[in-house]
Amino acid sequence: MEILRLAQSKKNINSLNMDLERDMQRIDEANQDLLVKIHKKEDEIQRLENEITQTRDLAEDEELEKENSTTMERERALQEMEEETARLERKNETLVHSIAELERQLTRKSQKATKCEQDNLKGTPEESKVKLQQLEASCADQEKELAKVIEDYAFVAQLCEDQALCIKKYQETLKKIQEELETRFLEREVSKVMCMNSTSKEYNSQNNKDNSLQKKKAGFCKSLPLLGNKCQKVASEQTLVFLTESKLAPSTLESSG
């Protein structure tokens, strides 16, 4: 009776082992499906990250190109202003020379007029009066011309000062823009590095999860044969004990008789 019970236990253990093997097979298949899904998700994530990176790079390139275009336009405008300032400075120098030349001419004409007046004193009063009127008209024309030159000179000088102030402010603005461009470039580079580090950490974390799952599976598979052997060993020991007790029972009865 005990042998039948042990045989049934062994049969149950074998059936349990088979059920466990089937469960392990189903777990393995589910694990394989899960790994396939994980790989698909990883590929999808990688594709999306590549698309995001490409889109971000295109946007950054467009923004950088726009900023470079703006900077080039401002540099070109600054160069034009510098050329205009140089032209005005040359005109200013020409006006200074013209004023100096007019002053020399006025001095010579004044000396000449004084000499003519001295000579005219020797002539008739009518001739002296006519020559004096001519000299006064000539001096008035020279004074008007000199006043116009001085006015042009003052205008050009003021324009040069305004241009110089404008160029100074423009250079300061251009310097700030260049500093902002450098700062944005550094921020973009830091953002790229941080994004790469984050992606690497996520990938390593997923690999660690997969490795942990594989280790658990391997440990469970290793424990199944040990469990089956242990059950078989217990069944064998119980069978041996039963047989021993069966043999000892008749001897005990004979000794009692």
Structural commentary:
It holds the Pfam family TMCO5. One of its GO terms (cellular component) is membrane. It is a single-pass membrane protein. It is a single chain. This protein has 257 residues and is mainly alpha-helical. Helix content is 98%, strand content 0%. The C terminus is likely disordered.
Give descriptors for this structure:
transmembrane; coiled coil; 257 residues; disordered C terminus; mainly alpha; 0% strand
What secondary-structure arrangement, pairings included, does this model have?
Layout: H1 2-120, H2 125-256
InterPro entries: SMCO2/5
Membrane topology: Single-pass membrane protein
Coiled coil: 6-187
Question: Could you describe the largest sheet, including whether it forms a barrel?
Answer: none
What is the alpha-carbon Rg in Å?
55 Å
Which class best fits the helix and strand makeup?
mainly alpha
Secondary-structure element pattern, one letter each: HH
Distance between the termini: 26 Å
Uncertain segments: 246-257
Number of helices: 2
Shape: rod-shaped
Average pLDDT score: 75
Percent range for helical residues? over 70%
Q: Beta-strand percentage? A: under 5%
